[in-house]
Design a protein that fits this description.
alpha+beta; 4-stranded antiparallel sheet
C-alpha cells in the first residue's frame, strides 16, 4: 500500500473549532452562529495564553541582533517579546579573524537601580530587561564604541493570536491534539 507522500497536514481555526465543538457537545449540535465563533476565538486566545503561562514553548524562540550605539544604554525589543533567554555582546561582528561572543549577565531591576554609576562607558557586561510597558533592554556599562559591538539575543516571543478562522496557528502540527482538546474543555465549561 502506498503512502500519501505529504507532510503538510494542518488545521485552521474553523476546523479546530468544529472538532472541539463536536467533542464538547458529543456531536449533538452544530457550530453555526457568529456569536459562537466569536466565543470560540476568545476561548482559543485564552487557551493560547494559558499554554504560554504553563512553560516554555520551544517554537516561540527566535533570535535577533541590535547594533550598539556609543553612549546609548537602552534599546527596544520587538513588541511581541515575552522575555530574553540569552544575550551576548559580539565584538567585531563578521570579521573571521577577530569576532568574539562574550556572554552577558542578566541582573535584576533592583540591582540595576543600586548601581551608582549608570553612565560609565565601557564594553557592556550586564543587562536588565524591563517588561512592564514595551520591552526594553538596558546595558551596563553603557557602550563606549559604535562600530565594534553587536548585541545578539535569543528571546521568547508571544504565540500569534487565533485570527479570524481562515488562518492556521502559529504552532507545530504536533500541538494540534492538545490545542483541540483544550478548546473542547474550555467550550464544555460554557
Amino acid at each position: 500500500m502506498a503512502t500519501s507522500g505529504t507532510t503538510d497536514f494542518n488545521l485552521d481555526l474553523a476546523a479546530i473549532a468544529d472538532e472541539a465543538w463536536d467533542r464538547a457537545t458529543g456531536g449533538t449540535s452544530e457550530l453555526r452562529s457568529g456569536y459562537q465563533m466569536k466565543s470560540v476565538r476568545r476561548s482559543m486566545n485564552l487557551l493560547l495564553a494559558d499554554l504560554a503561562n504553563r512553560g516554555l514553548n520551544l517554537w516561540t524562540i527566535d533570535s535577533g541582533s541590535i547594533p550598539l550605539v556609543e553612549g546609548q544604554a537602552t534599546y527596544s525589543l520587538p513588541l511581541d517579546t515575552v522575555d530574553t533567554m540569552e544575550v551576548i555582546c559580539r565584538l567585531n561582528a563578521g570579521d573571521q579573524q577577530t569576532q568574539a561572543d562574550l556572554y552577558m549577565n542578566r541582573i535584576s531591576m533592583s540591582t540595576y537601580a543600586g548601581l551608582s554609576s549608570k553612565l560609565v562607558q565601557a564594553r557592556p557586561v550586564q543587562y536588565v530587561v524591563d517588561r512592564i510597558q514595551a520591552p526594553t533592554l538596558t546595558l551596563w556599562p553603557v557602550p563606549d564604541q559604535t562600530d565594534t559591538y553587536l548585541l545578539v539575543y535569543w528571546r521568547l516571543r508571544r504565540v500569534q493570536d487565533a485570527g479570524n478562522g481562515n488562518n492556521t496557528f502559529d504552532i507545530p502540527f504536533r500541538m494540534l491534539p492538545p490545542l483541540t482538546a483544550g478548546l473542547a474543555y474550555y467550550l464544555s465549561m460554557k
